[in-house]
Write a structure and sequence with these properties.
Helix content is about 50%, strand content about 10%. By secondary structure, it is α+β, with helices and mostly antiparallel strands. It has 3 domains: about 150 residues, no CATH class; about 30 residues; about 45 residues, no CATH class. Helix 4 packs antiparallel against helix 5 and helix 5 packs antiparallel against helix 6. The two termini are about 20 Å apart. The relative contact order is 0.08.
Length: about 240
């Protein structure tokens, strides 16, 4: 996590979100699409598309699950767990076919919850449908960890609060700089570890050259066409 910016406002509404996002846009000065992940706060949902017109806005899986729980108060606990499990499977599905299977599972458990899920803008939280790039992130846990990190500062008067957060962030950057100097990997250790795991998994695939930059990867249960020039795969995991 790299804290980029923060602000203190009197209320979380459309005007304050617009002000915050407009200043953020001026500060980063980027024209390329950006992916935002947040809860379903109306002021934020409307403003992201108004300020960052070419960007994408995803809804946090955790917040969706909490809203789903509230809608299932009348359902038995074992059925709730099954629906939530199917919902998480739908959220993280890389293929539309897989998403449809998980949604069908929810429908088998409850037609009412199936309708709730199907009408909750899947294009904002389903990996196989979402058009932006989330790089494996489907929740706002990173932001929540930051909020917990500054809990003590949030109890202080505004100026003292801002100063304490500034000091904490400065200390964090220095600590990470010192830690990074001892890295022996090209990428960060955690990413390098994930990459090694993916490479090991790919060894079992049979690769067939289709044409030019296209290859077909054949596994035990399915196959995908990969374009190495555009870095795209039918599985949508890449």
């Amino acid at each position: 996590m790299f804290p980029l910016t923060y602000s203190i406002v009197d209320t979380e509404d459309y005007d304050n979100w617009f002000w915050f996002l407009d200043n953020l846009k001026s500060a980063i000065g980027m024209d390329q699409p950006i992916t935002f992940i947040s809860d379903r706060h109306v002021g934020l949902v409307n403003n992201v598309s108004d300020v960052f017109r070419n960007s994408h806005h995803a809804i946090c899986e955790h917040h969706m699950i909490e809203n789903l729980r509230k809608d299932m108060k009348h359902i038995r606990n074992d059925v709730k767990k099954a629906i939530i499990s199917a919902f998480q499977g739908a959220t993280r599905s890389f293929r539309r076919e897989e998403f449809n299977l998980r949604i069908a599972d929810i429908q088998n458990y409850s037609q009412e919850e199936f309708t709730w899920v199907a009408t909750s803008t899947p294009g904002r939280w389903v990996t196989s449908i979402f058009r932006g790039k989330r790089y494996g992130h489907v929740t706002t846990n990173v932001a929540e960890s930051f909020n917990n990190w500054i809990l003590e500062a949030r109890e202080l008067p505004i100026l003292q609060c801002l100063e304490k957060i500034r000091k904490q962030m400065t200390q964090l950057v220095v600590e990470r700089l010192l830690k990074a100097q001892n890295w022996t990997t090209t990428l960060t250790p955690s990413v390098e570890k994930s990459l090694v795991a993916i490479v090991k998994t790919s060894i079992s695939l049979c690769m067939i050259w289709v044409s030019n930059d296209e290859f077909e990867a054949i596994g035990d249960h399915n196959s995908c066409t990969i374009n190495i020039s555009t870095r795209e795969c039918e599985c949508q995991a890449w």
